[in-house]
Amino acid sequence: MNSDADFQLSSLASNDFLQELGAELVFTQDASGKYLSFYWQQADRYKLSPEKIVGCQMSETFGPVAIAPYLDRVRRAINGQMPERFSYPFSYEDQYFPFDLVISPVLTANGKATKVLVMGRMLPHKLNAQAINSQELIAYPALASNLDLHQKMLIQIAGSIRRTLPPSSELYHKILSQIAQNIRRTLDLKTIWQQTVDSLGQVLGVTRCIICAYKEEDENYEPSESNPIFKVVAEYHQEAYPSMLGLELSEANQPGWSQALASLEPLAVERIPVTNDSFEPYSVLVAATSYQDQPNALICLHQCNSVRQWSPVEVEFVRELAVQVGTAIAHATLYQELEQARAEAVALSQLKSQFLANTSHELRTPLNGMLGFLKLVMDGMADDPEEEHQFIQEAYRSALHLLNLINDVLDIAKIEAGKMQLELAPIKLNELLQEVENFTQAQLQQKQLNFKIQKPATEDEIIVYGNYQRLLQVLLNLVGNAIKFTHEGGISISMETIKKKIVIQNRELPGMVKIRVADTGIGVSLDKQEKLFQSFFQVDGDRTRQYGGTGLGLAISQKLVEAMRGTVNFYSMGEGLGSTVTFTVPLYQEPVMISTQSAESLDFFTLD
């Protein structure tokens, strides 16, 4: 050897010398990433002899997961002639090894460096309590099985260097873009939610990461405007902590939620748990995902075992990923809405086709009756003027029946097109019920059915707020159906007032009137009741042909009642057990109730 520097390099090239340094991993390399010498305590386990490593590029064998950012650190150590210390994962044959590394430049006799000495120790794959408190070690929780290999690699990289990685670095953007790409690769909302919490939870090494949908899909969910309730729809959590999946959380009770929703910026919150509840975190990082400046989800990261200072890198990572997730959620939601609309359109088309097939007989029957009786009159087939009058009368009845069928079809078409406008005005309920009784009296007598109207005991008349003709149409539809499907027993109409202030057309009204039409007829099976109000749906085509009608009565009645700000409900215990239909209509003025109940009427008054 010609100099001390040459002797030093020669010593460094000796594997025995490297082993004597006492580190788990020791090697020398040049700026291009070529191994000059190599020693690793676990090399024999993976059949990595120095002869197999030395002279090879790191990218071709055991080496850094992402070579470019690693070599940037090597060049910085060489050019600055200063050691570099950082954490970085290495890989070999799909195995990942996180190391704490120290890179030291090797100076030559002229004071320059072209090589480095790298010494490293393996980092644990799980955090212990001491590591959490000191924040010296990096967490490597078990990776979710549903993440692909490339995603796992990215999570390992991000987790290992997240505390030292500047947001402007190449690797930072690569991790962010790849995770976002994987999330946006699907249009399934549940998959997006789960991939988001899995990625963030593992990259940032938190105790728990949850995501809450901003709009709940359940039609029975009615959040309060002053204190919305959100449901946890996806979650990542460490095994030692209980799951929050499915819990409903109040915005007012969650730190930082209101501010995050309002600002659409990540918000870090530190707190001291007031109870021993394992759900309560010490530190929270919350971010609202959004699309076109409208929030569509909340991401919450919890540290439950200690106070955690969220680094600027972590906050920036969550902020940028939240933007990508918000767009993915919006696209997936739109896709689901389009799919639902398409499915509904297909189902509606099928129902319309079925309707036309089922009602074609109904439309032809009265028309054939009209033509038949009129042909008899024209051909002089009547034996006397009285029989001729009967023929004409039957033709007239068939015409009226056909007109009613056509009116039903036109009404439902107008409603479906949104062209039915109703003018609302005060209506005396007694007059409306009297007209219903007058219209249906002949049918009731013909079938020998009982008919009873039960009214609340009031000193003054009950006045509702609606459209007289359409309200009469609803009652005639419901009572007509009850008569049609009842062969013995009877029909009853009862009412109750519900005291609850409502505003309709800028007018404050005192409440609603609930009207019940009950019968002792054939009823409807439980499995078919949900579809009764669908347009063009008929419970049974054979039954419709047997009893007549289009099967549109309930659908039309529901639309008309809803146009008057009411609701319709159907109840039946099953076939042969009768039916009850209820609907509400706004109350124009509160009636004065009679304290004593008369025998002829029932007094129903409820508070909502």
Topology:
Elements: H1 4-12, H2 15-20, E1 25-30, E2 35-40, H3 50-53, E3 63-64, H4 67-80, E4 84-92, E5 95-107, E6 113-122, H5 129-134, H6 149-161, H7 170-184, H8 189-203, E7 208-213, E8 229-237, E9 248-250, H9 257-263, E10 267-270, E11 283-291, E12 294-303, H10 312-378, H11 385-416, E13 425-428, H12 429-447, E14 450-454, E15 463-466, H13 468-484, E16 490-504, E17 507-519, H14 541-547, H15 553-563, E18 568-571, E19 579-587, E20 605-607
Parallel strand pairs: 14-16, 16-20
Antiparallel strand pairs: 1-2, 1-6, 3-4, 4-5, 5-6, 7-8, 7-12, 8-9, 10-11, 11-12, 13-15, 16-17, 17-19, 18-19
Helix pairs in contact: 6-7, 7-8, 7-10, 8-10, 10-11, 10-14, 11-15, 12-13, 13-15
